[in-house]
Each structure stands twice: as C-alpha cells, then as structure tokens.
Amino acid sequence: MSEKSNDRGIQLYTKEFYAACTLGGIVACGPTHSSVTPLDLVKCRLQVDPTLYKSNLDGWKTIIRKEGFSKIFTGFGATAIGYSLQGAGKYGGYEFFKHFYSNSVLGPELSSKYTTGVYLMASATAEFIADIMLCPFEAIKVRQQTTVPPFCNNVFQGLSKIYTLEGLQGFYKGIVPLWCRQIPYTMCKFTSFEKIVQLIYSKLPKPKSEMTTLQQISVSFTGGYLAGILCAIVSHPADVMVSKINNDRKSGESMVGASKRIYQKIGFGGLWNGLMVRIVMIGTLTSFQWLIYDSFKVKVGLPTTG
What we know:
- It is a single chain.
- It is built from 12 helices and no strands.
- The chain is an all-alpha fold.
- The radius of gyration is 20 Å and the shape is globular.
- The protein has a single domain, classed as Mitochondrial carrier domain (Mitochondrial carrier fold, Alpha/alpha barrel).
- The two termini are 13 Å apart.
- Helix content is 77%, strand content 0%.
C-alpha cells in the first residue's frame, strides 16, 4: 500500500488518516449499539433465563408493565460509552494493523497473495486492544440488564460499586470470554465484509472507481448486513457465556471453573439461546456501522472501505 493523498488533502496511512478512521469508528459504533439497547436487554435476559419471556415483544411488555417504560433502555449509558471506545479501537486499529501487516510484516508481494490472512490478523489485533477498553462497561451493562432491580442506576454508580466490591478485577473478570466472543466476531466481520464487497464489485457492470459515492456506500451497506449475519452465528456461544459469567460467576471461582459449571447447567443447546434475536440485531448493527463509517470517511475525503 503506497501512501497517497486525496482531494481533501488527507494523506493515507498518516496520523490524520488514522485519527479520522478512529473518529469514524466512534461515530459508527456508539450510536448504533446504543440504539438497540431494548433488543439487547431482552436478549441478555433470555440468555440468562430462556423461560423469562415468550418473545421480544412479550419481554418489552413485561418490562414496561413491571418496571416502567424507561427500563427498556437499561444499560444505555454503559453501552454508549463502552462501544464508542471499542469502535475507536476496532476501526482505527483495523486500518492501522492492516497497513502494518501488509507493509512492515509480510511486505507488498506476500500481502497481495495472502489478503485474507492480513484481514484476519489486523482485525484480531485491533479487537484484542478494543476489548480492553470495552470490558469494564460491558461488565456494568450486563449486570444492569440481568439483575432486577438493576445492579446500578447509571454508569458512574456501576463503576464505583464494582470497584468497591471487587476492585479492578471486577471490571475484567469477563475479559477472556469477551475476547472469545469479540475476536472471532470481528475477524469474521471485517474479513467477510472485505470479501463480500470484493465479490459484489466483481459482479457489477462497472468498476468501483466509476461508481458514485451513493452506489459505493450501498455496496458497503449490503456487504455489512451479510457479514453481520455470519459473525453473529460465529460469536453467539461466547456471547451467551459472557452474559452468564458476568451474571453468575462465584467469588473466587476461576474462569475455566465458571465456564465448566455454566456449560454443565445449560448444555450445548443453551449456548444458542437468543440466536435469532442476535442475528437480527447484529445484522442490522453491522450494516449500519459500515454505512455510517464509510459515509463518514467519504465526508472527510477518504475512499470507502473494500
């Protein structure tokens, strides 16, 4: 990948480029994840107790009736902060590590042969770092959503309460299952997106360079939705375990011990509780994230992804 400028004067693979991509990740992830908080709330509760609600609609009706309308947005604040930070690390990091692995590790000749490997390594590295920023807020969100009455009323109360009760360890006791969920998810998300978008462009009657911005962003939206379905399926079992462990890990219990105990309780079938809800949620999230991210890149004068 050679460095070059675009019409807006931002040189690719410079500090300004990565800053723009990082900001784009915040704009793409924070609002989209926050907007589906009601869906995420029902999903997390069903993962912990599949008999709690008959459907999403039943879940919302029950929550509104018993807890009040505002409670369907339980976890909104932690979601907004956590996934904004994660989006910064994920998207900005992906652009950085994609260029780093292509040029500094493999070199142009090898990277052109092993593009899939570059996408996988870059997305995995970026997500590993992004999850360190996300984990404390994910811990607060899950506890808020899976306890009635909620574990805390807001993010700051949650931070204070967890730190007082468990110290820093309390914020990161779910980091391993979070990595197990998010790293495969992001590897699938970015790699399948790149490949799907390449396939779509190869089937269209004219090359990407001759397409309008709206046409290119439409391709990103379509590729994002299809990639979202795939990564939702790949990461779902770990998503269930994140909810279970944050909700039900006993004091002093190891991660392995907690995982074994929970798996013995729910079995293989339990790992797939809430899958259809998550497919709808993640497919929608991923498509809109790519739509927003690439629209933001175009707005600041950068090319669309893919």
